[in-house]
Amino acid sequence: MLGRIFTVGGYTLLSRVTGFARDIMLAAILGAGPIADAFFVALRLPNHFRAIFAEGAFSAAFVPAYTHLHNRDALAARLFADRIFTLLLSAQAALLVVAWLFMPQVIALLAPGFASDPARAELAISLTRITFPYLLLITLVTLYGGMLNAMHRFASPAAAPIFLNLSMMLTLALAAFFPNAGYAAAWGVLLAGFLEFFLVAGDAGRSGILPKFTSFKLDADVRGFFRALGPATLGSMGTQVALFADTIIATFLAAGALSALYYADRLNQLPIGVIGIAIGTVLLPEMSRRITAGDHEGALASQRRAFDFTLLFSIPFVAAFLVVPDVIMRAMFARGAFSKADAAAAGATLAAYAVGLIPFVLIRSAVATFYARKDTATPVKAALTGVAVNVALKIALVGSLAQIGLALATAVGAWVNLLLVVLFATRRKYFAFDRAFLISLVKFSAAGVVLAAALWLTSRWEVSALASMTSLRDETALGILIVVAAAVYGSCILLLFGKRWLATLIRR
Q1: Are 165 and 15 in contact (CB under 8 A)?
Q2: pLDDT in tens, 413-443
Q3: For residues 346 and 352, what is the distance between their CA atoms, to the nearest angstrom?
Q4: Half-sphere exposure of 6 (CA within 13 A, CB side)
Q5: Is-contact 372 62, C-beta < 8 A?
Q6: Is 336 helix (H, G, I), strand (E, B) or coil?
Q7: Which of 141, 134, 410, 162 is nearest to 274 (CA)?
Q8: Predicted TM-score (pTM) of this structure
């Protein structure tokens, strides 16, 4: 399992690194003004639907069902995939036509604050019409990726998002040939959809599993898929409703609030994608395989190991995002049209998101124990409760904290979601808080506190005095903090856990 985690995590890390390069270009060229806000609305709309129907609900319902069938009867698995492909492509094509026809009404609903700025609203409508077909393409990518993951082929689905970054960087570099930079970025999104599709479809074709059109029949396997899809959609929709609320509320705030949310979320997504999603992607088919074989103890051991890996690599991000978010934002984005004031606003938003980073990265592994058992209903209860808390807090906090309040509400809602999932899993004996696990939690917490203190002291000792020797002052300061963090955290882990624990974790 470790090798597969590193495969997914490595490609995801490359995706995030190229994503940062893309966002640096976005920040320098678009800044945090009206064009940037319009583009981020255009980017969020297909991404919201993708998270609900593709990467969220669809993966949760399809991957365990396909894995069970593939392990039992390859022919039945192929027929099942063909029928789901036929239905999925037809539904997405219909959604695309409706969205194109009613895009002004969709933008009025998603970004009502733009009503006071007709030019920004019209730009958002035009850009979203360009980006929305990305949803159809990425949905097919998710289908092919789920089939490949069931065969333990993780490379191409994990590498596909890199094309989004590369294609946007290409079109942004050619922004002078577009009406404005927002159009350049939007066409980059659409180009990425085609590139991702051809990459993953090619891998599926070489593996002999590329699905094709067939007559649709509601057989037992398809009915089971829909029984799992319904609750999973509600669960994924709950999370996306909260993100929709962010977008809607932020359009009423001052220009730049949407951009601050976007850049803070981009950094917050680094550990979520590289660690949380990568480990969860590998864990789900692994647990499905073990549970199908009746190895429930092995499934639990895999999940516990996933938790250890997730915490090990996530704690440094939590400490850094909470203690030095301003340095991080200035070093990453404060250039060109993106001012230091914009970086300060995004940094404060990042710190608020970091309050919920642990549940963000753990939730994919936590719900895997239910999805592997084809139970998509139970996580919905936790997700919807978390969303209710999230939205209520957004309304309560936005007046005094603006977009920072939106991010903080998201973090609190994530904690509610995770704690309820763990509670439900413990009640059903899918998970157990034994002494070894509790000791590990205490040790990870201690390492995080020591690391946070070291980062705070280093930043207060004016690392910028060293950094001022170069024109890249903030970048040098961040580099110094990274070196300090690596030394301190590595020493803490070795001292608290020992080499034997690390060796055992890697070998298992």
Answers
A1: yes
A2: 999 999 999 999 998 888 877 788 889 899 9
A3: 10
A4: 4
A5: no
A6: coil
A7: 162
A8: 0.73
